[in-house]
Specification:
By secondary structure, this protein is α/β, with parallel strands linked by helices. It contains 9 helices and 14 strands. The C terminus is likely disordered.
């Protein structure tokens, strides 16, 4: 399996957040992975004293949480975020903007994976929302594992199908090899999908039709590179035409994908597919875990294999 050394789980006590925590634990290796659970405390605002008699309105100021509030939050984290097997755990609290606190904690602790749900609580006390997840996605320097809240949260189950979306760019390469390793570790199917827009603008002027034969040849090249006797099943390829996010989500549903693995940046201009907006659209709507690998998080393909993708014993991971 992928030997993440330090995972950061953003926790807000919601069922979706607890489900994300269990998915993170399913990826952890005993004796090798540290799991950090972070809760960003809800802000407290009090009215500022009137500056003069008869002032028509009050200004509200934020009051820092005291040590007892931090201690109580950590105690609750320990109670609600319990791994099903022995793992090194650390519980942290922070104050301030959620996305800023998450990114700061990930940087301070050298995290190589951030795990979060894309929908949290609503109202004044909410912590994790789509906008927070998308901000973390844009600014984090490590991979992001995001889960959308499901109707029936459950413990992680077997991984049977891994879907990788590619646009054939070098930026997609790290995600390809991570997807392969997930499929290898869990003896799952690996499906490589390329989505092409029906027409694309060249140099902002002419409109050209995409070539399906070129796409098929590129998919075959990927298949031949990642195919191997260590995989439980032959690598499958798919091609679709249309909107990237819609096609990826449709394929994930049709093939009952347990994971979607994709990059956060791809080609620009002619034939581009995976950009931040597409990754965010998939992240917002997917009903299975979405693992987003940022090109900046890893270097060349050799570095991906040596630093991010290494062999290990299969383990249970998340289902839809």
């Amino acid at each position: 399996m992928i030997p993440f050394k330090t995972m950061l789980v953003a926790a807000d006590y919601s069922e979706a957040s607890i489900e994300a925590f269990h998915v993170a634990c399913s990826l952890a290796r005993e004796g090798h992975t540290r799991v950090i659970v972070l809760n960003v405390l809800d802000p407290t605002f009090v009215p500022e004293a009137p500056i003069y008699a008869g002032e028509p309105s009050y200004r509200f100021i934020r009051v820092p949480c005291d040590l007892q509030e931090h201690a109580d939050a950590k105690a609750r984290l320990r109670e609600e975020y319990r791994p099903s097997r022995p793992l090194p755990m650390e519980f942290l609290t922070a104050e301030g903007e959620s996305s800023v606190a998450i990114l700061a904690a990930a940087g301070d602790h050298g995290c190589d994976l951030i795990v979060m749900d894309t929908h949290g609580r609503t109202g004044l006390r909410r912590l994790l929302t789509g906008s927070v997840a998308e901000t973390v996605l844009r600014e984090a320097s490590c991979p992001i594992l995001a889960l959308r809240s499901s109707k029936s949260p459950h413990e992680p189950g077997p991984v049977r199908t891994v879907l990788h979306a590619t646009d054939f760019s070098q930026s997609s390469e790290p995600a390809l090899w991570v997807a392969r390793e997930l499929a290898r570790a869990h003896q799952a199917r690996l499906i490589v999908l390329h989505v092409t827009p029906p027409m694309v603008a060249a140099d902002g002027m002419a409109v050209v039709q995409t070539d399906s034969l070129v796409d098929q040849a590129a998919l075959e090249s990927i298949r031949s590179r990642v195919e191997g006797p260590d995989l439980n099943a032959p690598v499958e390829t798919r091609r679709d035409v249309g909107g990237a996010a819609f096609a990826i989500l449709r394929m994930a549903g049709d093939e009952k994908a347990d994971w979607i693995v994709m990059g956060s940046h791809g080609r620009s201009g002619l034939g581009r597919l995976l950009l931040g907006s597409e990754s965010e659209a998939v992240l917002r709507r997917a009903n299975c875990p979405v693992l987003i690998i940022k090109p900046s998080a890893v270097g060349s393909n050799h570095e991906v294999v040596s630093q991010v993708v290494q062999g290990g014993a299969p383990t249970s991971a998340a289902g839809v």
